[in-house]
Amino acid sequence: MVTIPEVSMGSTGLVVPSLGMGMAVYPLTSSETMKSAILHAIQLGYRHFDTAAIYRSQHPLGEAIKEAQRLGFIKSRDELFITSKLWCSEAHHGCVLPALKKTLQILQLEYLDLYLIHCPAILKLEGYELPMGFKSIWESMEKSQKLGLTRFIGVSNFCYRKLEELLVDVKIPPAINQVEMNPVWQQKKLREFCKEKGIHITAYSPLGAKGTLWGTNRAMECEVLKQIAEAKRKTVAQVCLRWVYEQGMSIIVKSLNKERLKENLEIFDWMLSQEELQKIDGISQQKRSSGLEEFISEENPYKSLDELCDGETS
Ligand code: NAP
């Protein structure tokens, strides 16, 4: 079993396993398949699991956690770091606590380790006005932490201007911002900003989400990464994951495949050289654009990808 290193954020008390298993599964598969992959991952050493209300994977994750305790793979749920997310249609004052309580009920847990606002876009809900600021939503997030329903609160897909706006009026700052990050979308500006503010970044789509509705093959087919992988006798996926790890970020990577779950863990006992890091630094940058269309429309606060992403798309 691999012992996955942890990242500590002294300022907030956050300790998070550097690598976790993503639970946004595309195409959607059966609960049994997901549960069995999660149990296998726990046996391999995974302790960090990332789900969301919208993923339809909360139920199998909850079932797998119970089963892992029954089988003795873990002694207690406290050994795990469990993240879930508030979906945009519930990002309204008055909806946050009920949404979190429903998530806990589906997961069969008493608390989460981390609860995130899934996206700064707010989808229209009958009876609510748009656009709406983050202030009242964040107050409900703070309340959920104070009530002990989640150990930490954070955001996801927040670019620096939206983070700046949120930070103006918070009592508990976000512990984590979970964003797309990989060698072809390195997020240098956002990383600097979050470092300055003491917000830890968790990287999602570290392989560019190859093979999903929202991803691209750009990372996995990148010539620079292929050359480095060949020279090091590693896979391109491992080079992507190692690069994110060396930037000090935690990583969420999705695979339900036994071999790839194992392969993705084998990144902690070797290093990229300075020369390799420099080559990766020079890769041309491009944010994914698919999967974001539903947040951009005349009805929404964001009318273009640039507005949603604070102009940071390449
Ligand atoms: P990803 O982890 O970059 O890529 C997943 C894809 O890569 C899957 O098709 C997977 O297929 C394949 N894969 C995994 N390991 C591989 C390897 N070693 N070699 C070759 N292919 C490999 O993308 P992601 O799923 O978008 O991101 C990971 C997680 O981050 C998600 O599951 C979710 O939990 C989270 N996420 C969050 C947000 C957000 O808005 N907060 C958005 C996207 C993702 P197999 O399963 O067949 O191995």
Can you give me a brief rundown of this structure?
The chain is α/β, with parallel strands linked by helices. The protein is built from eleven helices and ten strands. It is globular.
Task: Report helical residue fraction.
Answer: 25-40%
Low-confidence blocks of residues: none
Structural class: alpha/beta
Helix-strand sequence: EEEHEHEHEHEHEHEHHEHHH
CATH architecture, by name, is Alpha-Beta Barrel
The largest pleated sheet is described as:
8 strands, parallel, barrel
Strand-residue fraction?
A: 15-25%
- Count of helical stretches: 11
CATH class: Alpha Beta
CATH superfamily: NADP-dependent oxidoreductase domain
Shape descriptor: globular
Q: Count the E strands.
A: 10
Radius of gyration: 19 Å
Intertermini distance: 39 Å
Strand order of the largest sheet: 3-4-5-6-7-8-9-10
Nearest-integer average pLDDT:
92
Named CATH topology: TIM Barrel
